[in-house]
Structure to design on (96 residues):
């Protein structure tokens, strides 16, 4: 997980500095970020939801249980806003 985060930071720092008002958020063109998550890290989009008219929140996970939360903007830019490990899915009838 740490290696993955460092690799993403190293590849996206120039874009993040230009596109993000928050230094810790990693941003890139949406297609580039999607391709990197799927091809390099084997992640798949598991969930998405609208956050107003201009943003879509997405959760990406991989086989190891690593997860990435992405906000995709109508402008064509996407930003990683959180990452973590041990993603668990619950069915509606599963106890929490």
């Amino acid at each position: 997980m740490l290696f993955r985060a460092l690799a993403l930071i190293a590849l996206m720092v120039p874009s993040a500095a230009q596109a993000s008002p928050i230094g810790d958020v990693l941003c890139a063109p949406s297609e580039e970020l999607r391709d990197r998550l799927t091809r390099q890290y084997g992640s798949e989009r598991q969930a998405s939801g609208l956050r107003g008219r201009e943003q879509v929140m997405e959760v990406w996970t991989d086989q190891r249980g690593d997860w990435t939360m992405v906000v995709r903007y109508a402008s064509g830019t996407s930003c990683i806003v959180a990452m973590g490990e041990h993603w668990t899915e619950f069915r509606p009838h599963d106890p929490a």
Notes: Residues 2-84 form a domain with the Double Stranded RNA Binding Domain fold (CATH 3.30.160).
